[in-house]
Amino acid sequence: MMSPPRYRLVNPDLLCLLMERTGTGADISGRALAAAVDVPKSTVDALLNGVTKTQPYEIAEKIARVIGVDLLILWAPTGRAVSGEEQPVCAARTAVPV
Predict the structure, then answer these.
(1) CB neighbour list of residue 88: distance below 8 Å, 6 or more residues apart
(2) Which phi and psi angles does 9 have, rounded to 5°?
(3) Which of 26, 33, 67, 88 is 20 to 30 A away from residue 97, measured at CA?
């Protein structure tokens, strides 16, 4: 039997920022987010601290819904293209000489 798909949190800092102003315009604490998603507060803390990088689809979807954003704003599906342990790397933008 296949295990449920897991999603990798794209950026813990983005989750923290979006918790400061959710889709309703209000903020949400880690404790309130955990209660709304029905996970332990330690799960939210571990995501915010980068200790935990992935969650099952159901949890990732609930977090995105409570925050008020589309799933793929916060999460990337793991699998062949996206490793569960891989951290996103932002390429430095440099000016191109004209």
Answers:
(1) 10, 11
(2) -65, 120
(3) 88
